[in-house]
Amino acid sequence: MTEPLRGDARRRMAAAAVVLALIVLAIVLAVLLREPAGSPPQPAAPSTSPGASTSPGPAASGASPSTAQPSPSQPVEPSTETPEAGQDPVQPPATVPPVPVPPSAPDAGPGPAPDPGPPAAPFPSALLGQDLTAIPNAGRVVALTFDAGANAAGLPKILSTLSAKGVTGTFFLTGNWVEANPGGVGQIVSAGHRVANHSMTHPGFTGLDGTQIARQVRGAEQTILAAGGDPRPLFRFPFGERDARTIAAVNSLCYAAVRWTVDTLGWKGTSGGVTAQAVADRTLAALEPGEIVLMHIGSNPDDGSTLDADALPDIIDRISAAGYGFATLDALLAP
Fold first, then answer.
1. Which pTM was predicted?
2. Cα–Cα distance for residue pair 199/202, rounded to 1 Å
3. Closest C-alpha to 223, from 202, 192, 193
4. Count of other CB atoms within 10 angstroms of residue 274
5. Do 306 and 155 contact (CB within 8 A), yes or no?
6. Nearest partner of 170 among 295, 72, 305, judged by Cα
7. Which residues are catalytic?
8. Per-residue model confidence as pLDDT tens digits over 304-321
9. Cβ–Cβ contacts within 10 Å for residue 75, how many?
10. Is cis: bond before 116, omega within 30 of 0?
11. Are 255 and 234 in contact (CB under 8 A)?
């Protein structure tokens, strides 16, 4: 009976060994199968959705942000250039430069930036919302102003008369006029006169939106500055056409609007029934302290007359004889 018992014991041990080996193998396989789940996650693929950035931000990379590229030039509205107030349009038209984007301020480096204080007012706040028809509280002075939107036919005679009489004037220039008469600004400024802004192409402003108004004002400003004059902060509406909205828009561009006390009507020319004597008489009939006289540089397109230039010596003599002096429109900017 002992031998059969020993044989059974061996078989049982062999079976136990096989079972044990299978258990060990099962454990090893289970461990191996679980291993990928515990491995570190792989980095996600970069997004390809529109507008998504695949580069690290400045905080992650330590690199400074790239400089923004300038936007394309804005389209410009068609020119409506006119020779002088009340006359018909002339060609060729000019384009209006886009409003420039001011450059970003340079990095001031570490530490707090100094307080620059409040910006200087470009003109007294009392001029806001107004289109001035006279110089307030000016006393017995007259401002002679000359609009330039067509040609420069009357300019030599006007400058010669002002020089001979020792009088300074204010010249409202369109950007078109400056481009067509590149030496005109230099002649006016070197003679000691004031230049001012009369828009780029002389359109009626009440038909323009805010962006178009900015193009007209800034376009003329850039053109006059490039020619050697500074029109700021005096502006005159083409045709005198304005309303509360357009005055506010011009004020927001740091310009005060200046109209006139009297229009001499010299621009109508001899073909319009006007004479140099009538121009002078009309000016003197409106004489008052702070009077702003509107005259024009260009000639009448029909008859070629320059009545304002012709009448100017008589106008100055008669105003002086009435006990008045002369001032530029900078008198408006006095505090």
1. 0.68
2. 6
3. 202
4. 21
5. no
6. 295
7. 147, 296
8. 999 999 999 999 999 999
9. 9
10. no
11. yes
